[in-house]
Amino acid sequence: MGECLDHLVTLMPKMKRCSFLKGRGCTGIVVAVITVLVNDEAIGAEGLAKEVNDGDELYIKMILQ
């Protein structure tokens, strides 16, 4: 999952600046909530270490304060 987010940031560089860096970038705030689902299931305790496969569907929702 972490590699997928890294790739997403390479496609959308402003996403990292606005979402992942505390105190820097376009908003200067941290993402309040990040919801990640793989094939309609929460990634749970595995977090960014969650293994994903070709064909898996990823859902990433970020809510900024």
Fill in the keyword field for this structure.
three-stranded antiparallel sheet; 2 helices; alpha+beta; 65 residues
Break the fold down into its secondary structure elements and pairings.
Elements: H1 2-11, H2 13-19, E1 31-38, E2 41-42, E3 58-64
Antiparallel strand pairs: 1-2, 1-3
Task: Provide structural commentary.
By secondary structure, the protein is of the alpha+beta class. It has one domain. 26% of the residues lie in helices and 26% in strands. The chain is built from two helices and three strands. The chain has a three-stranded antiparallel β-sheet with strand order 2-1-3, with no helix packed on it. A hairpin with a 2-residue loop joins β1 (31-38) and β2. The longest helix is centred in the first third of the chain and has 10 residues, at 2-11. It is globular, with a radius of gyration of 12 Å. It starts with a helix and ends with a strand.
